[in-house]
Amino acid sequence: MHRIGRSLPASMLLSLRDRRMQKANAAALKTTATTGTLVASYNVHKCIGVDRKFDPDRTIRVIREIDPDVIALQEADNRFGDRDGLLDLPRLERETGLVPVPISATGKGHGWHGNVLLFKKGVVRDVHQIKLPGLEPRGAVVAEIDLDGSRTLRIIAAHLGLLRRSRSQQARVVLDLMNSPDERPTLLLGDLNEWRLGNRSALNTLHATFGPQPPAVPTFPSNLPLLALDRIMANRHGMIAAIDAHDTPLSRVASDHLPLTAFVRLERVDDNALMSPASQRV
């Protein structure tokens, strides 16, 4: 469930307009920018689809459709009790090559506050589990990975809260994780739970490091995406391209969110091309 703000109707109208533009440009994007490392973010909604069926097999099939090199999952564990993990991770590895970034899990869960970060090829250099402030239990996984012989990429996989005040506090914690804007190339991906645009967005704090971003892509609800709750952001110009929702008959029913995908091109990253605050808002 998501809280509704006064700016929601405007966000929905902008999303409808942007969807028409995105469909018109989709073919061009896929032919010009489908190179690099494919990353994805997917709120799997505890493997419960819009048909209210619990179906982890269906969730795995969606991930197999995407075929990502890196994917951040949200709500991959039960939220209460033992917080059991809900996916068959050995099967996921067999069918996709994806393995989870190792963390100090509690109970029987896959991840940290439901966040699971998986990758295909590479070496994990460092990993941290961050508790995010707010009324709800929220967290982030921060990993530094050498991807398949490429340079080291820092990935922050997060699921922000439903309350705007909590999201603002959590965004500031994300910035604190960066230490300084000239740090290594960094991706922030996850369900950031923000539908507001312009000055009302709780994500504006992130502009200090992540700067202006490509237009947000609606991913929620999955059967008629109107709100851009899921995001993929980078702290370098030209680092990400072809951001798109993975919209298929299967993904529309497997969760209430569509997966969000993008291509990362580390070989084109200029360490001097840091993001800077600008008038554009996410």
Automatic annotation (TrEMBL):
<keyword id="KW-0255">Endonuclease</keyword>
<protein>
    <submittedName>
        <fullName>Endonuclease/exonuclease/phosphatase</fullName>
    </submittedName>
</protein>
<keyword id="KW-0269">Exonuclease</keyword>
<dbReference type="GO" id="GO:0006506">
    <property type="term" value="P:GPI anchor biosynthetic process"/>
</dbReference>
<dbReference type="GO" id="GO:0004519">
    <property type="term" value="F:endonuclease activity"/>
</dbReference>
<dbReference type="InterPro" id="IPR005135">
    <property type="entry name" value="Endo/exonuclease/phosphatase"/>
</dbReference>
<feature type="domain" description="Endonuclease/exonuclease/phosphatase">
    <location>
        <begin position="40"/>
        <end position="257"/>
    </location>
</feature>
<keyword id="KW-0540">Nuclease</keyword>
<dbReference type="InterPro" id="IPR036691">
    <property type="entry name" value="Endo/exonu/phosph_ase_sf"/>
</dbReference>
<dbReference type="Pfam" id="PF03372">
    <property type="entry name" value="Exo_endo_phos"/>
</dbReference>
<dbReference type="GO" id="GO:0016020">
    <property type="term" value="C:membrane"/>
</dbReference>
<dbReference type="InterPro" id="IPR051916">
    <property type="entry name" value="GPI-anchor_lipid_remodeler"/>
</dbReference>
<dbReference type="GO" id="GO:0004527">
    <property type="term" value="F:exonuclease activity"/>
</dbReference>
<keyword id="KW-0378">Hydrolase</keyword>
